[in-house]
Amino acid sequence: MINNLDPIAFHVLGFDIYWYGIFYGFSFLICSLMMGYFLNLEVIEAEQTSFNNKHSISILNGKYGDRLLIFLVLSVILGSRLGYTVFYAPHWFQKDILHIFNTRNGGLSLHGGLIGGFIGILLFSLYVLSNSKYRYYKVILRHRNNKFISDICCSKSLLASLLLTFSISDAIAIFCPIGLLLGRISNFINGELYGTVTELPIGIIFAKVDSFPRHPSQIYEAILEGIVLLFITTNLAKNTKILSFHGMISGITLVFYSIFRYLCEFLRAPLDGHVEFMNRFITKGQSLSVYSLCVGGGVILFSMLLKFLTRYSKK
Hints:
Pfam family, one: LGT
Number of helices: 9
Subcellular location: Cell membrane
GO biological process, one term: lipoprotein biosynthetic process
Number of domains: 1
Keywords: Cell membrane, Lipoprotein, Membrane, Transferase, Transmembrane, Transmembrane helix
GO cellular component, one term: plasma membrane
């Protein structure tokens, strides 16, 4: 099989519209719709802990759902671009700093996007709570069938922001493998991040590179990071006990993504500038995956600490 696909989907007013950009947009749209359909995340505000005169805010739907999407799009794209610059092209800071913002020349880092996305969610949570005139909050997470998951009361503090941040990140983590799947498919269409040379029947010739059959590493990652990870996250989401640990699904998702990415890097060709060998042992992507694996484990432990703090705050 020969991969000679055109990365440009169509043209509009002289501008090239790439499949990568289309899939990126669809990723945000599909994930936001799926979150709002399957989960209901509310912040209940009140002046007293009795919550008599309360006010409810729906986070994943309505105007706040739209604003969350804007925060996510901007933070993920900015984080992806800056992450690529820091991790893979630091010379841009010295050579031409404006090149960092020229996204049409490509160069996005998934690890950078994860960092940017989390910062965006945290800023959104602070934005929601800063606009409130109330003192006490309940962060309520339910399945759309109203199956109860979590109901935590806390005062206006960093704890409230963290609870809301990790509740949102958990909702996103459940469906983010859809974005990973579409992203890897677009990598395959672009003929980038291709694999090492192979004699196996599964080998694909990337016409833009050379005439040797190579591992379709993008497809491997699409299967593991997309399909398999989506199966894991959606099944975890059915467990209300796991969802009651705010941040648990986010941490587990990051751990599995890091493992899958680390394994697939063994079959990704080191010819691309995206894959630089560090100390001749592991690739740049693998080293970043080790860090993200540790962060994922830390998030899991932190979610347990949050559970303890919220229980303590009720006493």
